[in-house]
Design brief:
Elements lengths: L1 H5 L5 H8 L3 H11 L3 H13 L3 H32 L3
């Protein structure tokens, strides 16, 4: 069960074939004894996709401002060190 629950790319059919277990048996075991980790992971991904466009734009604008500030600092530092090495 852990093999299936911890690998999001693995289908139930592939997991049952790899384990040598009947698919319906594996499915019933998952319902009875599974941790539900795979379902929780999927729900978290779905919630992350619900981020609105305006929120995403706001995040990108903030990141853009930070990158511009870092770029300006590096430009100033490069200019400072270039002037310092002229003799």
């Amino acid at each position: 069960m852990a093999l299936y629950e911890n690998n999001e790319d693995l289908s139930l059919h592939a997991a049952s074939a790899e384990l040598g277990v009947n698919r319906s048996s594996l499915f019933s075991w998952l319902q009875q004894y599974g941790t539900g980790k795979r379902a929780r992971t999927k729900a978290m991904r779905d919630n992350a996709k619900e981020t609105t466009d305006s929120e995403r734009i706001r995040q990108l604008e903030k990141e853009n401002a930070k990158l511009r500030e870092e770029r300006d600092i590096l430009r100033k530092a490069a200019k400072y060190f270039a002037e310092e090495t002229r003799w």
